[in-house]
Amino acid sequence: MNETLETIYNEYHKYIYHLCLKLTRNQVEAEDLMQEVWVKVVRYESYVKEVDHVKAWLTTICMNTFRDRYRKNVRRSKHVVIQPDTLEVPILDLIPADTMSAEQILELEDMSQIVQEKISQLDAIYQKTVLYFYVHQYSLVEIAEIMKVSIGTVKSRLFRAKQRLKELLTSDNMLEEYVHTA
């Protein structure tokens, strides 16, 4: 670890730990999260020179790492069922089937086709950003490098693209059964 990262660690490790603890509400998970955050900081050390507000940058990394872990755990928990003691139904009946019904497959294909069509109606810059982020699953940093813009610009483009996509989907009368506005 170079001197810059060592200085950053010494100055902010307590702050990051307390933030992780506040997010996870569990000491062991907070320590794991903190370790992931510092691994990312080391991975992106080349960006440290470009960062104006180190604390804000670290907070963003911490929040994004927490969100990623949370989403990953939610996806995993869909496949894990804990059977209560008083349940009269066998546990295997509660686990969702790995195979989808023909109706579910057709609905998924329809939605996929509709979303692809609506994405194609976006401006080219928004199309690229959405595809890089959601399809190719590039990080915001990677997209910023590819598109030669700041991370803030990438975030703005993603936000605007999602807003425009929502507008396109909700304005299409044929999609009323699919679109849930909240």
TrEMBL record:
Keywords annotated in UniProt: Sigma factor, Transcription, Transcription regulation
Keyword Plastid: no
InterPro entries membership: RNA_pol_sigma-70-like (IPR039425), RNA_pol_sigma-70_dom (IPR014284), RNA_pol_sigma70_r2 (IPR007627), RNA_pol_sigma70_r4_t2 (IPR013249), RNA_pol_sigma_r2 (IPR013325), RNA_pol_sigma_r3/r4-like (IPR013324), WH-like_DNA-bd_sf (IPR036388)
SUPFAM superfamilies xrefs: Sigma2 domain of RNA polymerase sigma factors, Sigma3 and sigma4 domains of RNA polymerase sigma factors
Domain RNA polymerase sigma-70 region intervals: 8-75
Domain RNA polymerase sigma factor 70 region 4 type: 113-165
Tagged with keyword Ligase: no
NCBIfam families the record matches: sigma70-ECF
Family: Belongs to the sigma-70 factor family. ECF subfamily.
Protein name per UniProt: RNA polymerase sigma factor
Source organism of this protein record: Chungangia koreensis
High-level lineage: Bacteria, Bacillati, Bacillota, Bacilli, Lactobacillales
